[in-house]
Amino acid sequence: MSNLPGKHWGVDIGGTTTILGYLANDGFKTVSTLQTIPSEGPEKLLTQIRRTISNIDDSPGTIGVGIAGLVDRENGILIHSPNLINWGRFPLQERLTDIFRCPAVIDNDCNTFAIQAIDSGEIPSDGLSLLITLGTGIGGTIIHNGTILYGTGYAGEFGHMTVNVSGEACPCGSRGCWERYAAAEALVRYFKRTGSDLKDADPRKIAQLAEAGNENALKAFEEFGEWVGVGLANLSHCLSPSEIFLAGGLVKTFSLFIEHARHEFHRRCLYKWNVSALSSCSDAGAEGAAIMGRALSL
Q1: I need a labelling partner for 3 at 20 to 30 A (CA). Which of 30, 31, 95, 127 fits?
Q2: For 23-48, what is the mean pLDDT?
Q3: Residues 6 or more apart from 249 whose CB is under 8 A from it?
Q4: What is the pLDDT of residue 2?
Q5: Phi, psi torsion values for 155, nearest 5 degrees
Q6: Sign, Cα dihedral of 52, 184, 155, 75
């Protein structure tokens, strides 16, 4: 076992992937990327996380976790997660403290991503900004003068604002949620609707085809971008932010959909377009969780 006691660990639990690592003197060190399998429940994933951390650090200093869903930060409970079915009301913070015998803290995964972006200076410390993560679902964070605004505790669930009142059913229990139209599954759905016979289509494969000029893939990204624009227009009407930042797995395809999003935004909104993609890497959420955990020791 390595002699690395007292590290500040961060874990980012998404709907398909879990990333974990720790803060080091020269930056954040990603240790492992695990597959998130929602149907297996949280305990199996916690066992994998425990084994991974214990192989490196037998006495963690703190552990912070960002997780996709509604989080009761005060009590450390995952209330509900549409992409982590049957994980609701799980006392994640308590379980982490029991397992690692150190202070633990949890928050929504988009918020931990925002913490990293604020800490690194990618999101400015003045003005009102929005961070939106596009991936398995859609996450959101409202940042005012460098501070996350939580409202009554759950502000930023942009993915579950209604954009189509009679639209697609959502695992959250509603219909027509934005993430049913501008997240990974939606992109795949648009592509399949073009009549493509590609088996096992996923966003990465569709992006590769689009970059090669495939008409079906380009049409899928056009529709995807239009729905991104619809949501951005709604948020601009509600909050009038100075800047909107996009992050998450699908932002790797930014160039394929952003002009369609911009066009749709201007069809629906008179506000200034000030949307950009963050350069943060895929472990930013885990790093933000570690920074959040480190604050417990200050």
Answers
A1: 95
A2: 95
A3: 134, 135, 136, 184, 203, 282
A4: 44
A5: -60, 145
A6: negative
Contact (CB, 8 A) for 81 and 87: yes
Beta-strand runs (E) in the chain: 8-13, 17-24, 27-35, 62-67, 70-72, 77-80, 104-108, 128-134, 138-144, 147-149, 243-247, 275-277
Give the β-pairing of 17-24 and 70-72: unpaired
State the pTM of this model: 0.92
Structural domains of the chain sorted by starting position, each given as residue range(s) with its CATH number in brackets: 8-112+282-297 (3.30.420.40), 124-277 (3.30.420.40)
Q: pLDDT exceeding 70 applies to what percent of the chain? A: 98
CB atoms < 10 A from the CB of 293, how many?
29
Question: Residue 119 in contact with residue 113, Cβ under 8 Å?
Answer: no
Amino acid at 273: W
> What phi and psi, each to the nearest 5 degrees, are found at residue 129?
-125, 155
Is the CB of residue 280 less than 8 Å from the CB of residue 27?
A: no
Place of tokens 């991503």: 113
User: Within a 10 A sphere around the Cβ of 226, how many other Cβ atoms?
Assistant: 19
| Residue 136 identity | T
The pLDDT of 201-212, averaged and rounded, is 96
Confidence of residue 5 (pLDDT cuts 50, 70, 90): low
- Work out the average pLDDT over 199-212: 95
Q: Which of 192, 191, 185 is nearest to 219 (CA)?
A: 191
**Rounded CA gap, 130 and 143, in Å?**
6
For the segment 176-192, the average pLDDT, to the nearest whole number, is 97
What SS3 state is found at 283? coil
